[in-house]
Amino acid sequence: MPDASGQPFSEAPIVILGGGVSGALLAARLLEIAGKRQVVVVDDAGPPGRGLAYSTVGRIHLVNANAGRMSADPDDADHFTNWLARFVRRGGWPEAPNIPVSDMFAPRSIYGLYIQELLADAVTVNARHGRRFQWLPLRAVDVNEAEGGLEVHFHDGASLSASVVVLATGIHSRSGVRGPAGRPRGVLDPWHPALEATAGADARIAIVGAGLTMVDAVVSLQDAGHRGSIDVISRHGLKPHPRRLPPEWPDFLAEEASGISLRALTRKVRRECRAALRLGIDWQAPLDMVRAHIARFWHAASDLQRRRFVRLVRPFWESHHHRSPPQAALLLDRLVAEGRLRHIAADVQVIDTSQRKPRLTMRLRGSTGVENGTYDAVIVSSGVEYDWRRVDQPLPRNLLQRGWVRPGRFCRKPNGNLSLA
Asked: What average pLDDT score do residues 14-34 get?
């Protein structure tokens, strides 16, 4: 492909595999750097900028942070707030709450539009400087070395030379519910749970996993007119806390040595949270100070400390740190109060979809026995699969075989995970 002057590019393009928020923002940044180049984003799921998280088309699924925390420009903390204010003034979100824009929890579909506009602006502005962008609606299945660079191979047999390949493939679900035959009967999409004939509005539904995808699933069920009972089943029986907007809290970790032990760090964070509560301040205020220091603490930690965090602390950290939008949290609380939703601490081992209704085999927390439960439908939202050895897709499988991707030290052995019969 030629550049703006009509001359061919001297180098193969930079190819980004994945068109979610990370891939789109990286493409925009690369286009802003001086010099002529071609940037190609490869994603068959749709135009870059949305990915899985922001591809929902409705307005019922909200981002889990207020607009003041969601800027995509690291040099302008108010970038999204200002964009959203203009969007609301133009009538793009007529049902927006009557509160300061920075405090709004925007629909994820709107945030996806924001990312797409940011990329489109970067493409338009930089095209005149000989920096070109292209989106390929293809699915990458392999990358190998080629003369002078790399070669990306696609599902349709085509290939593309690249000077650099960036993996921005996003997250993979731990559920494994999608197979060659599609989604099995009785297994519903967390974001679009069209109630099947075998289920119905009064269906008894199980949701496996209690993270933010579970929150989305409950919101989707409510929007679809579901009136039945919901069992949320997770290993620890935890649920995400609601996101609130606490006042600023002093950075009590700024002077803390990076090599602090996990136990000492946990104790210090808890002390700060208790101190905040004694002052009548939300415990989320000091906890929010931890995020800025996560990278340096993790890099300084020993392997033993990291294993202890993954095994002992991570489930509790995730339920406190990855919080739900307040509107969704109110819905969950209401359903619990009505007796329609309950949290069950159990390890789900098998989901059998071979019969008319899904059957779950689970071991309750603290018990050695196995129990079975039959439901009208099931939603699997058991979190992110960090270990690519469990991801049954060509690209991860081929990169693992080639040795270009290796499991981290703390990946579990690839057995004993949830199976779908």
From this structure: 96
Return the amino acid letter for 136: L
Token pair 């984003």 is at which residue? 41
Range from 63-77, 172-186, 349-363 that averages highest in pLDDT: 63-77
Report whether 232 contacts 207 (CB < 8 A): yes
The β-bridge partners of 378 are 187, 206
> Which H/E stretch holds residue 342?
strand 341-352
Three-state secondary structure readout of 380-418: ECCCECCCHHHCCCHHHHHHHHHCCCCCCCCCCCCCCCC
Tokens of 158: 């085509």
Is-contact 187 199, C-beta < 8 A? no
Looking at residue 180, its pLDDT comes to 35
| Contact of 343 with 232, CB cutoff 8 Å | yes
Q: Are strands 159-162 and 149-154 parallel, antiparallel or unpaired?
A: antiparallel
Label residue 369 by pLDDT band (50, 70, 90): confident
pLDDT for the residue numbered 159: 95
Can you name the residues that pair with 244 across neighbouring β-strands?
Answer: none
Question: How is 57-102 classified by DSSP, letter by letter?
Answer: -SSS-B-SS-GGG--S-TT-TTHHHHHHHHHHHTTS-TT--SS-GG
Closest alpha carbon to 297 in 285, 311, 309, 287: 309
